[in-house]
Amino acid sequence: MQSKSVIVSEKYPTKPITFIVPFGAGGAMDLVARLLEKSSVKHLGQPMVIINKPGSAGILGWNELVSSAPDGYTIGISASELFLHPLYGSVKYNYPTALEPLAQISSTPFVMTVQSNQPWQSVNDLIRYAGQHPGELKFGHSGIGSLSHVLGETFSKSTAITLRQVPFRSSAESVTALLGGHVQILFSNPGSVKEYVKSGMLKVLAVSGQKRLTDQVFAGTPTFQEQGFPLIYSSQYGLVAPKEMPADIKAKLVEGLRSILTDSEFKNDIETLGLQYEYLDADQSKNQWLHENKELTKAVQNSGIIELIQSQKQ
After folding, report:
1. Residue 92: partners with Cβ closer than 8 Å, 6 or more residues away
2. Which pLDDT does position 9 carry in this prediction?
3. N or C terminus of the chain: which is more exposed, having fewer CB within 10 Å?
4. Which pLDDT score, from 0 to 100, does residue 308 have?
5. What pLDDT is stored for residue 5 in this prediction?
6. Are 70 and 243 in contact (CB under 8 A)?
7. In angstroms, what CA-CA distances link 109 with 215, 218, 223, 251?
8. Which pLDDT score, from 0 to 100, does residue 313 have?
9. Residues of the chain with confidence (pLDDT) below 70
């Protein structure tokens, strides 16, 4: 990657900061960005201008971010898919090395959800049924190669059952498919199904975190680990910037973002969205990146997803 020239300003920031969201308006990432936008003038002294750049499951937006000047005036939001795309060999940049973390906002596990009228009350109930009806059950997820797809394939392989995968373009689409019985299982973030769980239309069999969710709607749902399955997957949302940002600008930007992210109102707003708030600073985020990259690399290799993606390209 070519070096990018940057003019260092002691008065940074002196103009609005562009915030790239690599997915469409209205999704979880976009809603998080709007929360930051709301507080940017107060904590950074300049407004944020949100640019939604959807396409290719985040690739278009992250490509634009990588190619932007590292001057502190273009930042973006990251998700765990940032680590997955390079593993599939389908991108021009290796995002974990082409971008640098500024902070982590949340770490939210997935939930395994079914219709309330299904007879299964636990993961083991579902596994027994799937074993007796091989290939009958279908699971929905948010796209081929997405983290929810990795989780579904890993669950299927680790329990030696046969589940058919069905990709969707959005969480809303996949929830609609579950409600309509077009798929029997859904792996998604808790926020996508929360209202349907509250209303009694859906029920959650397991949480993919190390511990149970704190949200009262899901607090009674055991983790996969509690039920005897070592499946621990969480989707991290964070803030990222192009590499080679001058140290003084980065320090000011990180401090301004820290004051937004650690504000109690922001924390409450994040949890209202159905996300699990977990702030990490820039250095802590870097360590988390190393761990997450290692774990996802291992999961992808064991899931068979790379072969699936390659077969679809042929």
Report:
1. 63
2. 52
3. C
4. 78
5. 43
6. yes
7. 12, 11, 10, 30
8. 59
9. 1-10, 312-314
Q: 132: how many CB neighbours lie within 10 A of its CB?
A: 9
Nearest in space to 17 (alpha carbons), one of 73, 69, 86, 62:
73
DSSP secondary structure of the chain: ---------TT---SPEEEEESS-TTSHHHHHHHHHHHHHHHHHSS-EEEEE---GGGHHHHHHHHTS-SSSSEEEEE-THHHHHHHTT--SS-HHHHEEEEEEEEEEE-EEEEETTSS--SHHHHHHHHHHSTTT-EEEESSTTSHHHHHHHHHHHHTT---EEEE-SSHHHHHHHHHTTS-SEEEE-HHHHHHHHHHTSEEEEEE-SSS--SSTTTTTPPBTGGGT-----EEEEEEEEES---HHHHHHHHHHHHHHHTSHHHHHHHHHTT--EEEE-HHHHHHHHHHHHHHHHHHHHHHTHHHHHHHHH-
Residue pLDDT, tens place only, 13-64: 999 999 999 988 887 889 999 999 999 999 999 999 999 998 887 899 999 9
Pairing verdict, β 17-21 and 48-52? parallel
For residue 237, give the nearest of 105, 149, 146 by alpha carbon.
105
CA-nearest of 227, 229, 278, 228 to 109 is 278
Which tens digits make up the pLDDT trace of 139-155? 999 888 889 999 999 99
Residue with tokens 């650690």: 262
| C-beta separation of 69 from 6 below 8 A | yes
Per-residue tokens: 267: 């924390």
